[in-house]
Specification:
By secondary structure, the chain is of the alpha+beta class. Helices cover 35% and strands 21% of the residues. A hairpin with a 5-residue loop joins strand 1 and strand 2.
Length: 575
């Protein structure tokens, strides 16, 4: 069969197969065009989940007649003025959206360009342009989607499912541009110039109010900045539906960013749960390639490892900061020599000496010698100035399970097991991993490409106690490992290889280490049901105030709750 040049209508329909996957894809492309046109108010109307009609109206700058005629030509765009694909400052740039949509629907465009006497209307099917009474911005109507390619219709979901997909697109664009107002079917409204936190609440739901932590940091070089909000670890979802990630203002679903977010919450949230976020990463356009997918939802970073490390450090710092800063500045007598600290230190250290897992990770005693020396006198602060500390002054114990305290804000309830679990975990985590050199290395056979993938992160693995190197082209060898740590090494390194090939990195070993430490901390912490005296309870509160991520245990459960005095007054009708 001879080679032939495909006709334009077929080329456009093939392109539509990449760009116009479903009605939500059409809404995304049209709204992005409206944003690129400078609109600050966009109205979207959808009928039958987008099958029958999609209408997008904006108050942007519009198009003159000549630009309107060119707008439905393939690869015609106003968004690459200097032909530099590494310097893209618009949402769209390919010039494929409008001709692709027109090839599978009945599309018309009404537009008005400032300075012209009248507006213009384009019938995308015939190419006819005629004067219009349209007076501001642009309206694009897409009717009978996929009518020209009816086989595509059977792949659409129900109208309700397609509508939900459209809503998700609008929400993501609304989160990208809080300065712009969006209205969808006169039901979902996001006012322009909305405060970011209020936009987050309107998109994610009222339950996030008061549960989001502010993020704003720059990299050491000053070239990268990340800002926005992440959820407190006790607020999570069963899916990633409320994770909103942006790169230079563009909504993305990038695997590097998703993996960094997951790693940041690794020791404060269960692996099967998902934090909420609205995070905005800014970096020089030369360091990120947005021209990697027709839908423009993926990006490639020039230095993904640096991006990932910067995000993880930033988010972990924020998550560590929820309770501790005020305490670090306080100069108080704090029970460092209390009977309780002595008892906990001896319990954990004794268990570590008797437990093979603990020996492999605790190279030195969990508490230093100065802290476990028997005191001449027990000194606590629960009778003096603890009232001004975050967790306040101990007033008792409930059901041998909860510590009750009061501070300047109200009534505080602390889960004694969750609190000590976090303390124990953090102390274990800060110690150097004790490793064991192997007389005979463990050899793992892998495909050549998998072995090469694993070797790219061997420095990261070394930080976790694993020293590896190549063993021929299709194998790697483990020469040193954490003491008394046995795994299914073949399965483990295959999983690492799969992650590296998919994401460019792997957190598999770190997750296994976290799980072991978390389980050990859980099993060797003070239990619910243990009666504590006042000095013991005070010591536990002072310790958790000084512990990173002290607001939640290793599984993401809350360590404490504060009931404000105003809420108590309301309960007892004293308002």
């Amino acid at each position: 069969m001879s080679v032939r040049v495909l006709p334009d209508f077929l080329v456009n329909q093939i392109a539509a197969g990449e760009v116009v996957e479903r009605p939500a894809s059409v809404v995304k492309e049209l709204v992005e065009n409206a944003l690129d046109a400078g609109a600050d108010q966009i109205i979207i109307d959808v009928v039958d989940g987008g099958r029958t009609l999609i209408s997008v109206i904006d108050n942007g700058k519009g198009m003159p007649k000549e630009d309107l005629a060119n707008s439905i030509l393939r690869h015609a765009t106003s968004k690459l003025p200097d032909d530099d694909l590494l310097n893209i400052s618009y949402m769209g740039f390919r010039g494929e959206a409008l001709p692709s949509i027109a090839s599978v629907s009945d599309m018309s465009i009404d537009t008005f360009y400032h300075g012209e006497l009248n507006g213009w209307q384009l019938d995308a099917t015939s190419g006819e342009i005629k004067p219009s009474s349209w007076e501001n911005g642009t309206r694009i109507r897409v009717a009978n989607l996929f009518a020209k390619t009816p086989a595509r219709l059977k792949f659409l979901n129900s109208d309700k499912s397609e509508m939900l997909a459209i809503l998700d697109v609008v929400k993501r664009l609304a989160m990208a541009r809080v300065d712009v107002g969006f209205v969808l079917n006169d039901k979902w409204r996001f006012p322009k110039n909305q405060d970011l936190l209020e936009r987050i609440i309107s998109v994610m739901g009222e339950d996030v109010r008061g549960q989001m932590l502010a993020v704003d940091a720059k990299s050491s070089s000053g070239e990268m900045r990340i800002h926005g909000y992440i959820s407190h670890p006790t607020l999570r979802r069963a899916s990633s539906v409320d994770q909103f990630l942006f790169v230079n203002g563009r909504p993305v679903k990038d695997k590097v960013l998703v993996a960094a977010l997951r790693a940041s919450y690794m020791d404060v949230m269960h692996a099967r749960e998902f934090p909420l976020c609205a995070l905005y990463l800014e970096l020089p356009s030369r360091n990120v390639d947005v021209n990697v997918s027709p839908a423009k939802t993926e990006v490639h970073f020039l230095e993904p490892t640096h991006v990932r490390a910067f995000i993880i450090k930033t988010l972990r710092d924020v998550l560590s900061n929820t309770l501790n800063e005020n305490v670090r500045q306080s100069q108080v007598v704090n029970s460092q020599n209390s009977e309780f600290r002595l008892g906990l230190a001896q319990t954990v250290f004794r268990a570590a000496q008797n437990n093979s897992f603990a020996r492999s990770f605790v190279a030195e005693p969990t508490f230093n010698r100065g802290e476990i020396r028997a005191p001449d006198k027990v000194e606590t602060v629960f009778e003096t100035d603890a009232f001004d500390l975050p967790l306040g002054r101990v007033i008792g114990q409930l059901n041998n399970k909860y510590i009750l305290a009061e501070n300047k804000d109200g009534f505080v309830i602390i889960d004694q097991h969750a609190a000590h679990e976090r303390i124990t975990y953090e102390k274990l985590r800060t110690h150097t991993i004790k490793t064991q050199p192997l007389l005979a290395p463990i050899v793992i056979k892998l495909k050549a490409e998998d072995a090469e993938s694993v070797l790219t992160i061997k420095d990261e693995l070394k930080q976790c106690g694993l020293q590896i190197d190549s063993f021929g082209d299709e194998a790697i060898a483990v020469f040193e490992k954490p003491s008394d740590w046995e795994l299914d090494w073949q399965k483990c390194f295959q999983e690492i290889a799969d992650e590296v090939r998919a994401y460019g990195h792997s957190s598999r070993i770190q997750e296994k280490l976290h799980l072991k430490l978390a389980n050990y901390a859980c099993h060797h912490s003070v239990r619910a049901g243990r009666k504590l005296n006042m000095a013991e309870m005070d010591a536990l509160l002072r310790d958790i105030e000084r512990t990173e991520r002290g607001s939640e245990c290793n599984h993401g459960r809350p360590v404490y709750k504060v009931i404000p005095i105003s809420e108590l007054d309301e309960m007892f009708e004293r308002i």
